[in-house]
Amino acid sequence: MIWLFASLLGGAQAQQNIPQDLLDLRAKSLASGASVIERQKICESLVPAANSRLPAQDSWRLRVALDCANTDATAGELGRSIQKLDALLKEIRSLDAHPAMEIIAMKYRATALANSGLRVEGVKELEKTLELANQRFGVNSAHSQDVGMRLCGAYQNANRYDDAIILCGQIAKQRASSLQGDFIRANANRYAGSSFVRRNNDTDVARGLELLKSAAAELSAANGEINVHTLQTRREYAYGLLRNKQYDQAHDAVRLVREGFVRLYGERHDEVTNSDALLRVILIERGNYTAALLMKDGASKASADASAIGVPSPMSPTSPISQLSRDLVVAITLLNLQKNDEALPALQAWADGIETLRNETTLDAVTMAQFAQEWHSGYQYLAIANHRKGFVRQALVSLELAKARSLNTSMEEMDRLRSLPKTEQALALDQVRQAALQRQRQRLATPGSPLSLEASRLATQLEDQFAQRLARGAASSSRARISGEVVDADVARLAGQLNEDEAYLSLGYGLSKSETVMPLLLRRNRTYAPSRPLVVMRNLDRTIYAMRMLTQHGTTGLQKMGKKLVAKLPEGFDVVDVSASEPRVDDARVVVEYLSGKLLQPFRNELKGIRRLIVSPDGPTWLIPFDLLELDGQPLFKSVTVSYAPSVSVLNVQYERLVAHRQGGASARLLTVGGAHYQNTVQLMPGSPIYLNRVKGVGTPSPFDLAVLADATSGPEFFGHLMGMVRGVPDLPGSLQEVRLIGRQFQSANVLALTESSATEKQVDALVSADLLGQYDYIHFATHGIAQTRRPLMSALVLGLEDRGGKYDGYISAQEISSWNLQAKVVVLSACDSAMGVTVGGEGILGLPHAFLVAGAATTIQTLWAIPDMETAGWMASLYQRMLGGDKPSNALAWVKQKIASEQKWIPRYELPTPWAAFAVYGW
Fold it and tell me: Is 147 helix (H, G, I), strand (E, B) or coil?
């Protein structure tokens, strides 16, 4: 950026000792009309001349060398660019150079890393660079703003859309005036708009289109229409139109963008190829499969011409990610054209490429889950291709390859940790816990702020140390590198474990504009599929919402609440929350019959006589209480034990843990937490992950809470507004009775009950710090629970707060729980909404159950919605009675549900609530 260069060197005064011919060359390289190839040619002369004629520590010389190295990255030659920047960084640090030079070199290098496909590494490097820029020049400096802008883009590319939106919003507000401020604001709106579009719900897409349109207009006014920033923004706008299903407008918009890039760079440039890729996707969405396939040759030629490029970028034709994206588009096109013989090997080659990329990349849990979601649909297309060729078993393997990858990897990693010697294990666990604490602080703080950056740096350092310790001390797991062969072996293993009256139902969700489900059924040594691979389920989200409302409140409760649910549409049934009529019993039956017919009816014959059904949902189907669905007119729970599993691979790990744990009975050890005193614990605001210690009705935040609030708010008046919304968390008197009833079924010496004033985070943390949680076979939480949909690792169990020192906030997050060392046979989360979190395609629901499985639990029991405080005590006592008597957790819960339904004379008409259906078992 010219303005940044001038600002750095003090304008003309800094250039007074530079030879005029060098200044002229520099001006040519910065000219807005110069192509990237022309700039590279100028740099070939300019850099050697500047090096030979100017002092080594001269800032002008160094800046020229840095910008020319960055020009290589712009041209797609990222490997060459990174090599030059590494050498320049080493040189700058050895010289008494201007302090900005290191910042510029670091930001260029980090951006190149992020664009090379190493998205996580690029984000980390940019966060380090921003932290250093803030320290040296201040948060509002041009250097910090430019690095922050690049970090916005890196967050977006890493699928961290919330972080991108927040950081971009801050940058846009901070630089609201002057020429450079206008440029920054426009680019901030561009990245924020792109992130909104990629959230992919109607409201966010509309907001994103609005921001992108505004940003494109500003950039065009400032830089002209044929400018890389303007054109990239207009292409993002076209992508938003595609997401908004405005296919004709998207097609016209991207064609204009392509023409602009051709004028700027010529036909064979990465920006042109990326525009072509978007055109192909639009053609596929419009159903023009032949036209899309005809574009394949042009893309391949562009890739061949760029084969000499070093480390590629997603914006480059030879980037692994970009190339795989194009390969997937071509394969899907072949599949849509019914060219199955060509589509299957093309999709298999794509999947092999993804597995190689995935196994060679180090990602944190959330980023890995987002990465899996990004490629989720490709595996489903592979499953469809196998189905069409009659390879039903391979279709199931393909579907399972897309499921719970981050969870499975994290579970395997924690199991490997337990193979370390005790001393090493303790050190490694401490590193995991400290890293989890820093990640929690990072997620609470504002993205890009000093607090967030410092927490990220410390977390990365601890995570690297943990990885090194694990690599040194534990043998590499044979399952660590997931592949088709590993998942195929897992499917075979489960098929052998299933009894003749047991089945595993795997669901895939998300193809054809998210209105289809792909069901596959595994019985003992046999796999089944419907005649057509996809089951159309229009308005599935709203249908599931209706069922959840009916089971929580019943039709009578909905009438009292003024809720209106049912409307008829051409599909035969749709559910909305507005209608001209009150909810009717017959309408309630339609909801259940519709879901049952779509998800179970395709396997009516294959499901006859089963006694156990393990369901592996996907997408919103995770929110369905399957044991209320019907087979041959009868609810499943009356004769079938229903449980859930994130994937076949995770289910096998859970089985290994279950058989390795001590059996139940009198010798079993129990930890219960319940009956907490909540009067002193207050929630900062509805949905806030911050809890404060209240003294005489006034919020008294801890120093850490104050740091987070100061970092996350724009002024004292906003803090006052938040404090005004403080509200207490009500006590749960039934939870004390619940844990007492459970405890009486164990030998008193084998029970640790944290109740009343002891039911605090401080007491639980003492057990964690002493590594004592691993001695309990059963762990039971009867507390409040909070689900965070935006930041799933901040979902939490809420305990009492008796600590006046400010160290504990009473809030135990999923992030913290995932670092615990458990060996529990069963963890019960008897809290409202404890199964909830954010649903990620292929990964399931990220939240509390996820965290407990990572921590080492074999089985978890949790709730899909709110549960009644007093009635739950008796239900849980019956559950433990059955488990201690030898029942598997899923069998025990099924027995309890049957008992409750019998006592209540329940019939499937849904006039009354069905709260006991909220409980669900993950595992056996």
Answer: helix
pLDDT of residue 779: 97
Q: Over pLDDT 70: what percentage of the chain?
A: 77
DSSP-based three-state secondary structure for 811 = strand
Give the number of other Cβ atoms within 10 Å of residue 81's Cβ: 27
Burial of 322 (0-12, 13-18, 19+ CB in 10 A): buried
Are the C-beta atoms of 534 and 512 separated by less than 8 Å?
Answer: yes
In the Cβ-directed half-sphere of 605, how many Cα atoms lie within 13 Å?
A: 3
Which helix (H) or strand (E) segment holds residue 356: the answer is: helix 340-359
Positive or negative torsion for Cα 268, 270, 272, 278: positive
Radius of gyration of the chain (CA): 29
For residue 619, the 8-state DSSP code is: G
Angle, in degrees to the nearest 10, between helices 320-336 and 340-359: 160
What is residue 471's predicted lDDT score, i.e. its pLDDT?
Answer: 64
Specify the pLDDT at position 838: 75
Which whole-number Å values give the CA distances from 276 to 133, 268, 336, 517, 696, in the listed order? 37, 11, 19, 30, 64
Rounded Cα gap, residues 567 and 587, in angstroms: 9
Sign of CA dihedral 172, 684, 620, 520: positive
Tokens, residue 736: 């004390």
pLDDT at 313 over 50: no
Mean pLDDT rounded to a whole number for the chain:
78
Cβ atoms of 802 and 680 closer than 8 Å: yes
Q: How far apart, in whole angstroms, are the C-alpha atoms of residue 599 and residue 540?
A: 12
User: Which residues does 404 contact at the CB level (< 8 Å), separation at least 6?
Assistant: 646, 647, 649, 650, 842, 843, 844
List the one residue out of 838, 825, 815 whose CA is nearest residue 921: 825
DSSP 425-443: HHHHHHHHHHHHHHHHHHH
Q: What is the pLDDT of residues 494-536, one digit of tens each?
A: 998 999 999 999 999 877 556 789 999 999 979 999 988 888 8
Return the H-helix or E-strand segment holding 558.
helix 540-561
What phi-psi label fits residue 510: left (phi over 0), alpha (psi between -120 and 50 degrees) or beta? Answer: left
Quick check: 672 and 742 in contact, CB under 8 A? yes
Q: pTM, whole model, 2 decimals? A: 0.74
